[in-house]
């Protein structure tokens, strides 16, 4: 009688060169591994997360959560796996996307997000060189419309928006606020990330009261109505 043999899935290792399909196959066979990325066909594991990274990540998560709750048709998430191409599976710190039925560009494939969200946020400490190098290039070519980098050393916020196929930095307004070009009313006070006397909540709540945000909410609703009518 022939003896059945079980198929052993190879272990996922940093530096492996894989396709997205094989990367996910190996990762799914390692349920204890929570964080990994495939960029340009190369496997990366993130480093340890220190307190400054954790604090900034928490603040930015709350900031996006406030905006999402006030903006029907938008979806925010943390450390989600994104299938961005045949050799690219990213796991950004945070994202904000528009649901496809409201005119968004990304989608859900099984249990993973696919395509490119409209906005990605990365908190960059030990990962700075990767976030400003291969991941910046990946997000640009994948169609991420805005990329917000929170740099821990030196303390700096860089918000990029796509202009004619290339990223351009968003300049601060006269009051120092950074304002999204894709998500009207998504306003950020960069200084609030480094000061215990200020809160990121203040700027975004101000943005949510703006006419620009009200107009965006109406625009999203109109898009959804048109799609529903088809």
Overview of the molecule:
- With 230 residues, this protein is α+β, with helices and mostly antiparallel strands.
- The chain has a single domain (50-225), classed as Alpha-Beta Complex (tt1808, chain A).
- 30% of the residues lie in helices and 25% in strands.
- Strands 3-6-9-10-11-12 form a 6-stranded mixed β-sheet, with helices on both faces. A 4-stranded mixed β-sheet has the order 5-4-8-7, sandwiched between helices.
- A hairpin with a 2-residue loop joins strand 11 (156-163) and strand 12.
In angstroms, what is the radius of gyration? 19 Å
The number of domains: 1
Gap between N and C termini, in Å? 59 Å
The first-level CATH class name: Alpha Beta
Work out the strand percent: 15-25%
According to CATH, the fold-level topology is tt1808, chain A
Task: Tell me the name of the CATH homologous superfamily.
Answer: tt1808, chain A
Key terms for this structure?
single chain; 230 residues; alpha+beta; tt1808, chain A; 6-stranded mixed beta sheet; 4-stranded mixed beta sheet; 30% helix; globular; disordered N terminus
Short note summarizing the structure:
The protein is an alpha+beta fold and 230 residues long. 30% of the residues lie in helices and 25% in strands.
Strands, helices and their partners?
Elements: H1 20-28, E1 37-39, E2 42-44, H2 51-69, E3 74-78, E4 82-85, E5 88-90, E6 94-98, E7 107-109, E8 112-114, E9 119-124, H3 128-131, H4 134-142, E10 146-151, E11 156-163, E12 166-169, E13 178-179, E14 187-188, H5 200-208, H6 211-229
Parallel strand pairs: 4-8, 9-10
Antiparallel strand pairs: 1-2, 3-6, 4-5, 6-9, 7-8, 10-11, 11-12, 13-14
